[in-house]
Structures are given as C-alpha cells and as structure tokens.
Design brief:
- This protein is α/β, with parallel strands linked by helices.
- The chain folds into 2 domains: 2-200, Hexapeptide repeat proteins (UDP N-Acetylglucosamine Acyltransferase, domain 1, 3 Solenoid); 202-241.
- The protein is 40% helix and 16% strand.
- The chain has helices spanning 2-15, 22-28, 30-46, 50-64, 171-176, 203-240, and strands at residues 67-68, 73-74, 79-81, 87-88, 93-94, 99-101, 105-107, 119-120, 125-126, 131-133, 137-138, 143-144, 149-150, 159-161, 166-167, 169-170, 200-201.
- The strands form 4 sheets. A 6-stranded mixed beta sheet has the order 3-6-9-12-14-15.
- It is elongated, with a radius of gyration of 26 Å.
Amino acid sequence: MLNQLKEDLNSIFARDPAARNLLEVLTTYPGVHALLFHRLSHLLWLRGLKWPARMLSHIGRFLTGIEIHPGATIGRRFFIDHGMGVVIGETAEIGDDCTLYHGVTLGGTTWNKGKRHPTLGNGVVIGAGAKVLGPIVVGDNARIGSNAVVVKDVPEGATVVGIPAREASSKSANADLSLNEPAAQAPRPCFDAYGQSADVKDPLVVKLEQVTAQARALEERLVALEARQPAAGNSESQLHK
C-alpha cells in the first residue's frame, strides 16, 4: 500500500503544476486524503466489514467533501484535482492513471442491485462538473468535457462534450484535414478540463450554426431578389409604351 501511495503522489506532480513539494501535497490536497480513506475503507469492504468501511468512508466525506463508496474499485495513480463535490458510486470501476476534477459524478440510473455505475478505462480524464451515469464504459484515454452528461459508452480516445454528451468536433482539426490526409492522422481535438475550449464545439451547436448560416444566406438572396423586382417591372412598362 505504501508503494501505491508513492505512485499516487508522484502522479500528482506530473499532472498538477501547482504542486510544489511532498509536504504540501500530503497536507493540503483533499483528493489525496479522500483516496487514502478509500484505500483503507475498500480493504475493510473486501473483508466483509461493511459497516466499518462505510463509517470510515463517511468520515472521509466529512473531511474532504469527496464521497467515494468503499465498494468502488480504483486503479493506480488516481488523481482527484480540487475534489469538492465528487461522487463515486458503489459499483464504479476506475482504471489506472485516471483524473477527475471537482463536481464529477460517477452515478447510477437504477435502484436495482448489481452493476449500475460506470467503468472507466486507463488514462481517462473527466472535466469539472461532468456526470457519467449508468453501467456504461468509457474507453482508454477518453476525455469528457466539463459539465457534460454522459449516458452512453464513450469510444477509446474520444473527446465528448455537451448534454447529452456527443463526440466533439475541432475547428482546427477540420481545417487541417485535407483530402490526401487520412482521418487517423488528423489532429485530435484539444481538451479543457474546466470549460469547453473555443477549439472544441458540441456537434449539435455546429449543426445549429450551419443551419443558421444557411438561413441567413437564403434571407440575403431573397432580399436581393425583392430589390430587383421593381426594376424589372419598370423595364416592362417602358417596353409597352
């Protein structure tokens, strides 16, 4: 467990530029404290000591503002940045090298027992305020934008944003993609954990913008045609004279 703690701490220095030294991380990072409480409560849970596990988890929630059910399975080098308001349900499964920001919920959508919470692959990053709901699977290295609501499986390496979450488009990626360049080599959309980047747009928003642009173009053409009608009428009247 000490080796696992060392890995968890080292991963924080790699992902958080605000982390300056080990003492600061150990004493002031609620995500570290919540993870320590969970590692201990999960061991009790696996040994059948359900009430002590829940009580220890409850104390961790009181101290950190992060609620992790002791039944949840969490991999190595897990990092919760800031952490306030994070909720991780009983049957959630989290792979290695995952990062969650504040306000994230890994929740269930049913009152039935059994698997009802998400499964995250390795290297998943979930932005602030996102809700990942139900027994869905988020593939390795996927990115979930802030405030997204995810209710369907997310493919490996995908970036999803919006409500409900859809795979994001990137203006820079689309601009750089030529007919001679395979889609697999196109630049991937960038990712902003705190808010939707200006470079990554919800596909629904993109469609609405396209429809709006087409409607505006049609309106301009209609105005131009109406402006030409009087001139055409005058020329016809002169011909009759």
